[in-house]
Amino acid sequence: xxxxxxxxxxxxxxxxxxxxxxxxxxxxxxxxxxxxxxxxxxxxxxxxxxxxxxxxxxxxxxxxxxxxxxxxxxxxxxxxxxxxxxxxxxxxxxxxxxxxxxxxxxxxxxxxxxxxxxxxxxxxxxxxxxxxxxxxxxxxxxxxxxxxxxxxxxxxxxxxxxxxxxxxxxxxxxxxxxxxxxxxxxxxxxxxxxxxxxxxxxxxxxxxxxxxxxxxxxxxxxxxxxxxxxxxxxxxxxxxxxxxxxxxxxxxxxxxxxx
Length: 259
Ligand code: KIV
Prior knowledge:
Structural class: alpha/beta
Bound molecules: 3-methyl-2-oxobutanoic acid
């Protein structure tokens, strides 16, 4: 088994798993110093491309961003989201996942869904491909973005889906926007780690979209915490640059070439 995956599995019931998304090299290299897992999330569709949904994200976009992220990630486990409609059946999934693994040199992939994707997960796992699951809100297919686990039937389905994913061989599972008691129950019920986003502190780990954390997005989600407003800092720097150019304070002799 991949040593980095073993490390993640060993953290269950011991220490929290720290995860963030990255879409390019420089940010990835910063995250690599601190994170156990770096995810090239298809959230890049809304964050970088202003797409209405992640459905519009293509395999080509994911591969290009992942290649950039790979240049910055050495220590952490690097996982790539498989975009919508690229894993509709085991054959299609295997072909596309193999391409992603070959092109990006990532350590594994993440797929959204439960019961419906079990045969796909089993095929990938049989081919020694590390797979991360994703239940709760499924941005690729859900029409409504409200938290999961309000009704008993829904909660039972999510528990069952998670159990099925574990049995199919996923090494960990993202719980997206799952009600607190339910995410606790799932985390206690399964042996693989749960990584929460909007799913309380009961999960074995936590993931956030990096742009939300640093203030480079307009995200107002309840589960987001903004640790710094980096756009304010950039704004200040660009304003100063503009003023110096206009006042002829930049460039100076030391920034210029002379024979
Ligand atoms: O696409 C993404 O960034 C994700 C995480 C938020 C879990 O799936």
